[in-house]
Each structure stands twice: as C-alpha cells, then as structure tokens.
Design goal:
two-stranded antiparallel ribbon; globular; binds heme C; mainly alpha
Length: about 475
Amino acid sequence: MRIQNVLLSVASAVLPLALATTSLFALPARAADAPLAAASDAASSAAAIDGDALISRGKYLAVAADCAACHTAGGGRPFAGGLDIETPIGHIVSTNITPSRSAGIGAYTLAQFSAAIRRGIRADGANLYPAMPYTAYAKLTDDDVAALYAYFSKGVEAVDAAPARQTALPFPFDIRRSMAAWNLLFLDSTSYRPVAGKSVEWNRGAYLAQALGHCQTCHTPRNFLMAERDSQALSGASLGAWFAPNITSDKATGIGSWTEDDVFTYLKTGHSSRISQAGGPMLEAIDKSFSKLDDSDLHAIAAWVTTVPPIKSGSIDKTTLTPAPIANDLREIDGSADKGALIYSDSCASCHQASGKGVRHLPPLVGNAAFSRPVPDNAIMAILHGLTPEHGQDMPGFADKLNDAQIADLTNFLFRQFGASDVQTTAAHVAALRAGGPTSPLLLLSRIGMAVGALIVLALGIAIGVRRKRVR
Ligand code: HEC
Ligand code: HEC
Ligand code: HEC
C-alpha cells in the first residue's frame, strides 16, 4: 500500500505522462482510423486508373524513405526483415514486409498499412516500437501512402519466411501497450502541411526531408523518454558509436557556411567541398537512399535544410578554429616527438600526405569536418573501420593494426594539429567504440527514464484497478 502511494506521488509529479496514461485506459481502441477509410476509397480508384505508375512511384518513395535500410538484412531477401536494431532498451528485430500472406503484410488493407506506417499500429492492433520511424512517416500524404501500399502489395516479391529472430525486450518494455502512452505524448499524426509564403521547391524539400528522409530521426537530440526534442531540431545527436552533427544554419556549430550546392553534392556523393566525407549511418543513407533520388528532389532538400533556423550547440566554434598543415616532414622528427604524430607518419601520411593537405582523391585532413565535431567518435570510427563509399576511394580500417592507446594518441594529435580543436579522447573510449559504442550517460538516463515511465503506467494501472474494485 505504501509503495503504491509513493508511486502515485511520483506519477502526479510527472503530470503529462500521468495524464497520458489515464487517458490511455479510457481510450477507445483506435480513434484515428475513421479518416483512413475515406483515403482508402479514393486511393483504390486511383490505383485502378494507373496501377503501374502508382507502383513505380511507390518504389521511388520506398527508396527515399529507405525502408530497405531496416527491412532488408545484410545478405537477406529484399524486405524480408530480420535486421537486429540495437536500441537503449534492447534488441528490436525488423519484420517481413513483403506481400506474403503468411509471413509478411500480404493481408494488410490500405487502412491497416497506413496505420502501421503513420501511427505505429500493427494489423492486429498491437503497437510498434518507435525503432520503426512512424513518427516521421506520420507526415506522409494520403497519396504517397497509397503509392507505397501499391508497391508493397504488387511490386515486391513475396517471401514466405518469418525472420529467424524475434523482438524480445525485457520487462517492462515488452508491454507494447506502453507505447500507446508514448504516442499520445510524442506522436504528431498530422500529414505535412505546406508552409504558406515558401516556394513549391522549399515545401517539397521540407516534405521529403521530414516525412521520407527522416533527417531528424538521427540529427535531433532526444529527451529522457527517447522522443525527439523539437525545440532542438537537427542540432546534433549521438547515435551510439556515431555522432550526427548539427545541420541547422548556425555558422559556428552547424552548416551555416554551406551553400545549397554543397549540401546537394554531399547528399548525392557523400563528399562536399566543405572537406566533409560521410561515414557510418550517413554514408549508408546516402548510398542506399539519397544518392538515388532525382536531382530536383535533392536540390529541394538542400533548399530547405539550408534555411533551418540556427541553433547553437556544444562548445566548438568552427569559425574560430584555424587548423594548419604540418610544416616540416614528420619523418625528420626525433623519438621524443608526439606519439600520435609518429603513428600518423607511419600509417596515414602515405595517403593524406605528411602535411595533411591530401592529394587528388585523397581528402585533406587539415580542416576536415571530422575534427570540428564536438566529439571524437566519428574520427575514431573511421580510423577503426575505414570508409567504403560507393562513389569514391576507400579508406582502409586500422582496427587490427593499431591498439586502443595508439588510436587514442593518434586521434588526439589529429584534433590538435588538423582541427586546432581541444577535443581529446582516451584508450578506454576507443575500446568502448571498438566494442560497438559506449553506454553513454544519455543512454543510461533514457533507460532509467523509460523504466520510470513504465513503472508509472503500471502504478496507475494498479491504482485504477483498486479503485474500480472499491466502487463495485
Ligand atoms: C529505422 C528502421 C526502419 C525503417 C527505415 C523502416 N522500418 Fe518498418 N519497421 C521497423 C521495425 C524495427 C519494425 C518492427 C517493430 C516492432 O516489432 O515493434 C517495423 C515494422 C513495420 C511494419 C509492421 C509490420 C508487422 O506486421 O510487424 C510495417 C508495415 C513497416 N514496418 C513498413 C515500413 C515501410 C513501408 C517503411 C518505409 C516507408 C519502413 N517500414 C521503414 C523498422 C524500420
Ligand atoms: C541514419 C542516420 C542519419 C540520417 C537519416 C541522416 N543523417 Fe546526416 N549524418 C548522420 C551522421 C552520423 C553524420 C556524420 C557523418 C560523418 O561524420 O562521417 C551525418 C552528417 C551529415 C552532414 C554533414 C555535416 C557536416 O558538418 O559535415 C549533413 C549536411 C547531413 N548529415 C545532412 C542530412 C540530411 C539533409 C538528412 C535527411 C535528408 C540526413 N542528414 C539524414 C546521420 C544521418
Ligand atoms: C589508402 C589511403 C588511405 C590511408 C592509408 C588512410 N586514409 Fe583516411 N581517407 C582515405 C580516403 C580515400 C578518405 C575519404 C573516403 C570517402 O570519401 O568516403 C579518407 C578519409 C579520412 C577521414 C575522414 C572521415 C570522416 O568520417 O569524415 C579521416 C578522419 C581519415 N581519413 C583519417 C585517416 C587516418 C588517421 C589514417 C591513418 C591511421 C588514414 N586516414 C589512412 C584514404 C586513406
């Protein structure tokens, strides 16, 4: 009884969540489906008129939304699922979304498909975990949902096998119902509405970026319940092992100095004249999705993203960093020189040049964007695992050639020398990244946060149950 009271006072202290959970218990099963039926009628007549065009538009949208990034496992059949997505609360496995009636979504109606991708509700009524980016896809227009449905019904080959692994989260996260409370708090389920006074191109870019490209899924920091913090949109966030930098128009900490063309070229090829090369999840998104979009759509995204209001983040002010190339040949320095400098000379200078200025297709490290980040993670990940872009030359990985201490010394040297930055690292941090990413205080916090949230849901459930019994 006393424990219940304590939990209840915690619950009332966290008012918004408490509100959400009480309405959760009072909520009719699916309030949001009524308008979808109308959309379904309109769409099925459209499909009858021009089915093939609709399917190929759906295919293009599936590339823009990068459905394959999660639903096609490495080496697996297209869209057959089975990719293991690591989240702060455990492993979530993507499902089979081929039109197989037994193992996939072949039995989904348009309305059910729409509810899954825009509201995170499966055909059986259960909630999906937000590892499926339905908070972004919620902005999709009815027409585009119908096109995606046509493609996933008729343009994709059915695979009649469910993924070998299933999602199995520890208690209390295994309660899918708790996601309904989360949705009430954080899911804005209105389609994108064009902003008046902005050009057609700008609105197209905003729509593509927000609803399909889901830039915010990676670049927006999250609160302790793992929801995106809208007030900090696109100002940079850690994804575990990689850091998605600030891409607002702030000059000091974002990409305020990039032109539309810089962004266009980066999204198309993974390189920009701002000495930035995409690695990790960004390179994957570019190779599988952005580089395959029409140029006009990439220009539209660039037109929009360069106007995102500036948000200052972190402490590194790129405009005051004055990196310099190495003046004399490193091979001439004696044994007392910086350990990192010696490793650079041995392992890296053959490509990036002793001066760090690079040559032809081998990029300069002097002033490289990798060293203007507020964290050393991306540079360390590139050194550990290399980069294998589809467009351009590979950088080899050094995971089995250099140990953690050597990579730390090297990284510290690079940030000081080529970034003029005081970001530094330790062998322990390199070891954590080598093992797949650190359990950052933020991740720990989010895990505790979600546990507290789930406890409140539970406490309220018990309290309501007790009250109902008393009333009877
Ligand atoms: C970032 C990863 C990610 C991307 C991108 C993604 N999905 Fe998902 N999707 C998932 C995961 C994970 C699940 C399973 C979630 C769960 O079990 O709660 C899922 C579930 C689904 C489901 C529910 C199927 C079922 O019955 O379980 C549908 C439908 C779906 N996705 C369609 C799509 C479509 C269409 C796209 C592209 C427009 C897409 N997804 C993009 C990760 C992703
Ligand atoms: C799957 C996660 C993910 C998605 C989705 C994503 N990004 Fe990124 N982005 C990253 C990461 C990680 C980096 C850092 C890459 C590196 O340092 O090598 C990055 C880097 C960038 C950069 C380079 C910035 C700099 O200072 O060098 C730009 C520009 C960018 N992203 C724009 C976008 C846009 C626009 C979208 C949506 C259309 C987008 N990103 C979607 C993860 C993502
Ligand atoms: C065989 C040539 C080669 C060697 C050796 C090499 N690199 Fe690279 N490096 C490249 C290429 C090519 C790229 C650009 C890849 C791309 O465009 O995606 C690159 C990119 C980078 C980047 C930018 C990564 C990012 O995410 O922005 C860093 C940092 C870097 N190299 C550091 C190093 C260090 C440190 C070493 C030595 C341990 C090294 N490189 C050795 C060829 C090389």
